[in-house]
Design brief:
- By secondary structure, chain A is an all-beta fold.
- In chain A, 0% of the residues lie in helices and 51% in strands.
- Chain A contains no helices and eleven strands.
- Chain A has strands at residues 3-7, 11-12, 18-25, 33-39, 45-52, 57-59, 67-72, 77-82, 91-98, 106-107, 111-115.
- In chain A, the strands form two sheets. In chain A, strands 2, 4, 5, 6, 9, 10 and 11 form a seven-stranded mixed sheet that branches.
- Chain A is globular.
- The termini of chain A are far apart.
- In chain A, 38% of the residues are buried.
- The mean pLDDT of chain B is 96.
- Chain B is mainly beta.
- Chain B is globular and about 35 Å long.
- Chain B has strands spanning 4-7, 10-13, 19-25, 33-38, 45-49, 53-54, 62-67, 70-75, 85-90, 98-99, 103-107.
- In chain B, a hairpin with a 3-residue loop joins strand 5 and strand 6.
- Chain B contains no helices and eleven strands.
- The chains are: A mainly beta, B mainly beta.
- The A-B interface holds A 43-47, 58, 60-62, 94, 96, 101-105, 107-110 and B 32, 34, 36, 42-46, 49-50, 55, 87, 89, 91, 94-102.
């Protein structure tokens, strides 16, 4: 059974960089698109971007200037960096896998990141 | 961005009811639509993709229909486990892929 697990700090100061890692177990990330998605408290889902296992990326234009997603196929992990965060970036961050540029079939449990001084 | 609008925002229903949720796209997305179920404190769970294809393991009481700009998710006989929030996702345009705001199904 494929499982995804997010890890990283739950509290980030304004203007700093949010960093999260997603570890995939029970299956390889090779051949898949590895996504980050967030959900602000009480709000809908917002796709942040993906990295293909080969390294190509695609980011949400609204966040593109602040987002970097990277992959480590040897560790079966991928990571998110979001720079210059503000309170508006407070959200539950999910990692999710998609077999194509489509729907997301496996998700991590989500991790709450709060931006506050 | 393609805007996805769901209706209603909240739906009150009883166990055994037939329930239909609608998702409208701001432009044609062909059949590139997925539906998810989300329970409080949990990640979304994929129910349906390509508008009407049931994800493996999802009960057959769930069905999807529609194309272009109008889509629906129907639960033929609502079960206690089905009280949750449902949202749609378009992936015709992946820059960016976008979600509806969600429809909460609550007990009447």
């Amino acid at each position: 059974q494929v499982q995804l697990q997010e890890s990283g700090p739950g509290l980030v100061k304004p203007s700093e960089t949010l960093s999260l890692t997603c570890t995939v177990s029970g299956g390889s990330i090779s051949g898949y698109y590895c996504n980050w998605i967030r959900q602000s408290p009480g709000k809908g889902l917002e796709w942040i971007g993906y990295i293909y296992y080969s390294g190509s990326t695609n980011y949400n234009p609204s966040l593109k200037s602040r987002v970097t997603i990277s992959v480590d196929t040897a560790k079966n992990q991928f990571s998110l960096k979001l720079s210059s965060v503000t309170a508006a970036d407070t959200a539950v961050y999910y990692c999710a896998r998609s077999p194509s540029r489509g729907s997301f079939d496996y998700w991590g449990q989500g991790t709450l990141v709060t931006v506050s001084s | 961005d393609i805007q996805m609008t769901q209706s209603p925002s909240t739906l009150y229903a009883s166990v055994g009811d037939r329930v239909t949720i609608t998702c409208r796209a701001s432009q044609s997305i062909s059949s590139w639509l997925a539906w998810y179920q989300q329970k409080p404190g949990k990640a979304p769970k994929l129910l349906m993709y390509k508008a009407s294809t049931l994800e493996s393991g999802v009960p057959s009481r769930f069905s999807g229909s529609g194309s272009e700009t109008e889509f629906s998710l129907t639960i033929s006989s609502l079960q206690p486990d089905d009280f949750a929030t449902y949202c749609c996702q378009q992936y015709n345009n992946y820059s960016p892929t976008t979600f509806g705001q969600g429809t909460k199904v609550e007990i009447k």
